[in-house]
Amino acid sequence: MLEKLLHNITKISADLFCKLLGQPSVSDLKAQLHDKNVQIHQLEDQEKALYRVISKIRASLELETIFRTATKETCKLLRVERIAVYRFHNDWGGEFVNDFEFAEPGWDDVDTLGKNTVWNDSYLQEHQGGRYRNNETLVVSDVYSTGLSQCHLEILEQFHIRAYATAPIFVGKKLWGVLAAYQHSQPHEWKKLEIQFLSQIATHLGFAVKQAELLAQAEQKAAELHKANQQQEIVFNLVAEIRESLNLDTLFKTTVREVRKALRADRVGIFRFYPESNYTSGEFVSENVLPDCDSVIGIIVQDRCFAEKYAVAYHQGRIQVLSNIYQAGIKDCHLLVLEQFKIKAQIVVPLMKGKTLWGLLCVHQCRCSRDWKTLEIKFIRQLAGQFNVALEHSELLEQSRLQANQLIQANHALEVANSKLEKLSKLDGLTKIANRRCFDEFLEREWNRLKQTGNYLSLILLDIDYFKDYNDYYGHLAGDECLIQVASAAQTVLKRPTDLLARYGGEEFIVLLPNTNESGAIKVTKLIHQSIEKLKISHTKKNSSQYFVTVSLGVATRIPTTKSSAQELVDAADKALYKAKEQGRNRWVCAAKF
Asked: Which of 46, 247, 256, 470 suits 486 as a labelling partner, its CA being 20 to 30 A distant?
């Protein structure tokens, strides 16, 4: 007791001595050290949470998935009642983006913000984004004690908002929108770490939007190049037809067939003016038409309106493009002719024989109006040029050389586009891992390689247990998210670049492990099983007992030989998987053990 008393006296004396010197006491230093340790742990927790959210954002390039994931995770990590995304319009008004919000139960039905709710803030419009343009956040702990204007307060009350924090989302250097955290039930004292976390998520959302936009542009460009190449190939084939034969009837039939197929139009026809009619009459000499649309062959067309109003313009190379004949402002006399053939939209290109207007190449849309694309108009113009070559033989050589050069350029563009498409064709669209086609090619290649070296090849086939029940209960969107998470969990286990995870079909996944024996395959199998269990994806079966999503796995190992086949390895893993399901699911079975 005396020793303890002396210790306390010494400690008190030391604290008094420090105070006399104006220095912090030992107790104060310990308290400060404790506070610093708490802050460090909070920062570590925030960094881990941020990494998890960013990883999920980067797992998808589809904007809706990215934002739904980010808002859900941010809402739970900040422990607020709602996270929403506001997107600016060009006039600096804006709206809350459909399906880009997440709200905690109890608040998800209260005037949902994420249903394209227009919320035009006059201040933001006047100042073109206001403080957000300077990458500043806005924090309000209680809307009733911040001095907000009455009109602003009324809007907040409409959505039961009591406190909020917002951070700007930039795509490149452009202010794209705002990530907002809302508290409905009570005021909320926002911590510095919470605001930092919200800002970091907003920053990475901007990166994700930019990445998704770039991918969409690349895919669109590849599709356009592919379509342009198809159209150029048709032009080239017609050039070849012209070189081989000047039989106009054959050329007409080939042209209308290929043009309608390329443009997916309802009808394509070639109209010829009667030579002595002065452009007042003529008939369609060839057509290719859908079965449910009327034929125009054999019908004499009388149109004095054309001779009076349009012939001169077509002589000068005019192309008529009508997306909707009733909104084009055309003359009534011309409109009556179009209605006769039930035309709703059309492209009409002149066909010249030397300097004489010989006829018209007509592309008709009969079932509905249609917005014609620039590429389609250019394609029709090119074909008309080739017809002019056929009608005037003297121009054949020059036009053929021109189209040959265009084809070389188009083929080069196609090779580049095909290379990009080839990469995309080997990925599963949902999970972004290898697809069945990619797996089959890789399996065959590895099997043949290991036949030469005599090394092991192992395979793991896994299937999500009761996935149909999961889909039926939670819906297909949740089912898709489940598949994405399972694929991601399995992929994290594979460390070697030679290992391959692929979606085998439906809820089945398959793992190929070159140069891996049975014990190695079993180790990987266990890790995959554990990784998926750690996801703890809730799954309620029909009997309403709560549990989590699990998988069953089948393992098979072989040394490839000339007397065996890769399919035998797949079949062995499949039988092992079936055995695992027979034994009660949520387990793995090795093919060699039964």
From this structure: 46
